[in-house]
TrEMBL record:
SUPFAM superfamilies: PP2C-like. This is Protein phosphatase 2C domain-containing protein. It comes from Rothia kristinae. Residues 1-30 are annotated as: Disordered. InterPro entries: PPM-type-like_dom_sf (IPR036457). Gene3D superfamilies: PPM-type phosphatase domain (3.60.40.10). It comes from the Bacteria.
Amino acid sequence: MAITPLRSRRTLHVQGASAPGRPERANEDRWGARGPLAWVIDGASQPAGTEGALSAADYARRLGEELSVRATWESAALPEILAAAIAAVGTADAPGPGPAATVAMLRSRGEELEWLVLGDAGCAVPDEMGQPRVIIDDRLARVAVAQRQARRRARREGAEPQVLAELSQRLYRAELAARNTDGGYWVAADLPEAAEYALTGIAEHGPALLFTDGMSAQVGPGARWVSWAQAWRDWRAHPPRQAVAEAQAAARSQSSSTVDDATLLLAS
């Protein structure tokens, strides 16, 4: 397919911030923007002993680079751009299951915004009343439920590190079995066609948000922001680095929580 540069769409103005959950570990989140396109990427953490030659952090970085290369493709829909980026990174021939990532994207289209969400990254766009419409792909949360609950319970009860490591391995294997399968969940990994299963839509142009699950985990009862309405106001009113810092501080104060990498991008 011949791809022509994008000329009619306006440039998105973007502010973003990202921070690792633990300073001794690489940040597996990435964010970026070029021209009319913006994105956040959350590389999926892998338990010790399951990592391949390409780490989750490296995969997220390379996927972002490939999205940037394709940011000005005019005739391509967002899933096509993402599929091409996944294919360009090319992990299908790597040994083992390989890394994966969740992705959320925005693209300016005149007076509208196109959005895409694949995996449990998310976006928030204004509805016709200016209130937040929050889109998060929750298909991952529907698989490996028993294994996820077991690990969460063990963390809450202060289980020994080796117990948590075994539970993480069990959860990883259960999630891997459902990855990029019908009835399972879809993420950027070794199958470019996974992009076809992304959630997509169009919203009115206005300040919009992209975020990883390190941010969305702190929205809801008992979290830093009690509702999406509150998060929508605060995240747009202050620099993203402030919200990221507050999300991670809240996670550290919650004994049953781990501190995840967190990324927030504000686009207008």
